[in-house]
Amino acid sequence: MQRVIEAQLAKDGQARSKQVVRGLRRYWFLYVLFIPVILYYAVLRYYPIVLQVVLAFKDYKLSLGVWDSPWVGFHHFEHIFGKPEFYSVLENTIAISLLRIVFGFFPPIILAILLFDLRSLWIRKVSQTILYIPHFFSWVIIYGIVFAIFSNSGFVNQIIEKFGGEAQNFLMASEWFRPLIVGSGIWKEIGWGTIIYLAALTSINPSIYEAAKIDGAGPLQRIWHITLPGMKSVIVFLFTLSLGSVLNAGVEQILLFYSPATYEVGDIIDTYVYRQGLNGLQYSMATAVGLFQSAIGLILILTANHLAKKYAGTGIW
Predict the structure, then answer these.
(1) What is the pTM of this model?
(2) Nearest-CA neighbor of 296 among 16, 94, 150?
(3) Count of structural domains, the chain
(4) Is the residue at 64 inside a domain?
(5) Tens digits of residue pLDDT in 186-223
(6) Same domain? 50 vs 86
């Protein structure tokens, strides 16, 4: 019996091999066209990842290159975690990222629901355009707008002085740094998030709303029982991705906004690496920190996806 099974398995394997060979011969031109795509991802995507992993465990020398530089094992990780200021930087990174999630995750959902329920198509289009525009501004332009509003001679201080108050140095005050960072980030990206949720709402069958109205469901009941369940998969997807980027607090924005006066509350992992690693030509140390961020981000995404599938019934995959 066992010999019969082994013989049958061998025949099946040969048949599959012949089928694969016939497919390669028949569609060889399509596979040739796919070679540049494979080379692109292999050379420009995956090979740099391999270099990053290797570089984190080497004492990189410009004259020797990545592969010929001496191995140092976990020396860079021990050096990083042995510095007391790194834990302050890590705390700032997590704090800013969590503030972004707490205060910036729900406004696009609320705005998408409000825009979706608008009866006037003209008002909806105008509102969407106004909300989308900041997303296409660079952080340099955003900082210029914030500077014009909150600088010593800005709009806010002019109002304060007009009512007899004393002008505040918002941009140099550590207690105002995080509110400005989070607030400007929300204002810039709220429109883009609204687009994604509006796209999810368009997939809901309008007849469900009509049936709910006939049954006497009010606006809040329709939102709770129809709108939010229809958006659940997108909400879970974006929330899981946002958790995976907890250790990436927005280096481009913070590099523009922070100063030595706000290092205490604004110095994050990326800016710390920029100053200590890249400016000091410590490329291996900077790469080790990047590998640490990637590993933690992967763990957070896997954990969040597992919990989402367990408790919400949906996930990224």
Answers:
(1) 0.80
(2) 94
(3) 2
(4) no
(5) 999 998 888 889 888 888 888 888 888 888 888 888 88
(6) no
